[in-house]
Amino acid sequence: MAKHKVKDLRVKTPDELKEQLKLLRKEQFNLRFQVSNGQNENPARFRFIRKEIACIKTILNNEASS
Which residues does 65 contact at the CB level (< 8 Å), separation at least 6? Predict the structure, then answer.
C-alpha cells in the first residue's frame, strides 16, 4: 500500500476513509503480532501505518467540525 497524498485523501468520502482506516488498523494489529514473534520483516511499515492512520483521523475530524 503506497503512501497517500493528503489531497488524494481529502477527495475521498468519509465512508471510504473509514473503510481505509479499518483496513490500516487490521494491518497494524497483524504487525504487532509479527513484532512480538520476531517475524517482522519491515519494521518501518509499522511507523508508516501509524502516520497514515493519524492523517486519516485528522481529515475525518476536520470534516466533522466543519
Answer: none
